[in-house]
Amino acid sequence: MNNLLCSFKYKNGSFPRRGVGTSKHLGKIQMSLAIGRGILVNPVFRRSLGYNARSIVPTCPPPEYDTGCTHCSIPQFPPGKQIDFKTNLNGTSVLPWKHLLVLSHGMDDFDEMPSKIELIPGSLSSEINGLKRDNISPHHPVLVSNILLTSHESVLRQYDVDLAGREQQLVYLYPDRKVIRFDKKHTKDFIKKYLVPEGYKKQEVYNPFKKSSASEHIQVEEYSEVDSDHFTEFPIEKDIVLICGHTKRDVRCGVLAPLLEREFSEVLRKECLNMDTDVGLISHIGGHAYAGNVIYLPRKSEKEIVWYGRVFTDRVYGIVSETIKKGNIISELYRGQLND
Questions:
Q1: Which domain holds residue 178?
Q2: Is there a domain that residue 266 lies in?
Q3: What does 246-312 look like in DSSP terms, one character per residue?
Q4: pLDDT tens track for 279-303
Q5: What is the pTM of this model?
Q6: How many domains is the chain built from?
């Protein structure tokens, strides 16, 4: 097939440098999940995310062509920031109950993104962080991330989002696979509608030292119905490949991310998948030592969300070929669980 039919070009034929940011875990899993290194996925959560049986291939296929930097050597990192090549990647990732991807952060260069996005004044991440303790279930963890797509501006225009006042918000929500537009003043209702289980109610923790009359009962806050008119939903139209590129959090992700972003864009173009797949950067998602970290978010629910580690430019073709095209999981790169 003529590549001109499915190709796209960046300005001046070059690929722009993208930057970095962070994300924050909202809530703590108190059963079989533990935030941090070596997190395992609770089978209940896996079933709730709609994961299906998958085909697994042991190793990543080698590239069939060179885009220009396919075989670029791994950059040198300072002492104490070396990539961990020893740890088995299986079971080292976080699979949150919900993953919220924020597009309306107002930044066009992730190199300027602070190390903790929830500390950015006026941001949606900051707003959610301030509400999470009283509104989000500790048993249903939510991960909030900022993302910056190579097609970011056109996506914002597509959904008619105006960032001038920083009030209008556009987010992608997984595993729901929804695009949602709303005003920031409705963030609390957004949490109630999308980020907690249906019927969830927060119960006050019993305090044995608190004096109370016999007639008093533990208070329970019931979540009232929210006005759905405040939220406009759209279906996810494309697959998304996101590369962790959090320079201010860790140099390994920041250095590798632009190389991987370019390679994915080039390989997807050559494979005529660029019209169906967005590529971009994501703020901190954990596991710097396993850089480059890549998350594949398919638009179709029958395909599994996949998180890979130790991805370098010579692995990109294999990921596109096996995972994006065929739906297979590459065991040696996979940070999820294989034996559940």
A1: 13-333
A2: yes
A3: -TTT-HHHHHHHHHHHHHHHHHHHHTT-TTTEEEEEE---S-GGGPSPEEEE-SSTTSPPEEE-S--
A4: 999 998 888 899 999 999 999 999 9
A5: 0.80
A6: 1
